[in-house]
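Course assignment 3, question 2. Fill in each field.
Student: A.L.
Task: Predict the tertiary structure for the chain below.
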Amino acid sequence: MQSVIQKVEEKFKKGGVVDVKSGDTVKVHQKIREGNKERVQVFQGLVIRTDRKGSVTNRITVRRIASGVGVEKSFLLHSPLVLKVEVVKRSKVRRNYLSYMRERTGKSARLTSVEFDRQAVNTVVDKKAEEEAAKIAAEKAAEAEAEAAKKAAEEAEREAKFQEAVAKHEEK
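Answer field:
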């Protein structure tokens, strides 16, 4: 029998989440809202930690080097802001928390890669995320269409003014 908390959490879980492990190099597609605009930002890096697999609070910590500075971001995999997680490379590691990678740079930061079926790992069907992406695309298309209609109206107005000016000039 499920507890009340588990029943509530099930509502917020995504239909499918990619099986991410420590040592994976991933691309995380995150929805960013700036004012009234939305865009998708991709953060690619090494997964140095995985927490609470199987839970709504399933979290990964991704590290990358940006302009010579180490940057770490934590992502809740079941968050509606995380649109897609794509495993690019899988490496052989023997622990869950790769804190030693923070001190390593260059050749010492290399990990031995492991062969894996990239297509099978990254293929996860999540209908909610697909609907959200389609909704964003439809909004962008509607904005572009409205902008084109506005430009066409302005162009028609300019053309009418031009014809009016030509007609006045011919009268004189």
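Instructor remarks: The chain has a mean pLDDT of 87. The first strand starts at residue 25 and ends at 34.
Grade: pending
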